[in-house]
Design goal:
about 75% helix, about 120 residues, mainly alpha
């Protein structure tokens, strides 16, 4: 086997290890975030089912979520459409505050009995 071919294998190895470690970290973080989201969603749903009176506060919950988006999330009001627009025509980055706003909005909506899908 030629010497340059053997050298190339050893030069590629650190890059493969680097991308493997990065992929592993991204997978762990995404899995942990998904687990926290599902656990939280189950918790608020179970709490609402045990305390049905909270459904009467649905209008206040909706008002609260709307106010939070108005006060802190004007750049992320488009939701999924913002993500799709940025994928098809990248002009700027998606604001980091989008994730916690969506998490809090989804949990509050489920807590108060809003009509949304899981």
């Amino acid at each position: 086997m030629k010497k340059w071919l053997r050298m190339e294998r050893f030069e590629v190895f650190p890059r493969v290890v680097k991308w493997f470690v990065l992929s592993l970290l991204v997978g762990l973080l995404a899995g942990a975030a998904s687990a926290v989201f599902i656990y939280s969603l189950n918790w608020v749903t179970n709490w609402r089912e045990q305390h049905l009176w909270i459904i009467a506060l649905l209008p206040l919950g909706g008002l609260g979520v709307g106010w939070i988006y108005h006060a802190f999330g004007q750049k992320v009001e488009a939701g999924n459409n913002l993500l799709l627009d940025e994928i098809h025509d990248p002009k700027s980055t998606v604001p980091l505050r989008m994730a916690p706003l969506i998490l809090l909005g989804t949990l509050a909506t489920h807590l108060f009995g809003g009509s949304v899908g899981r």
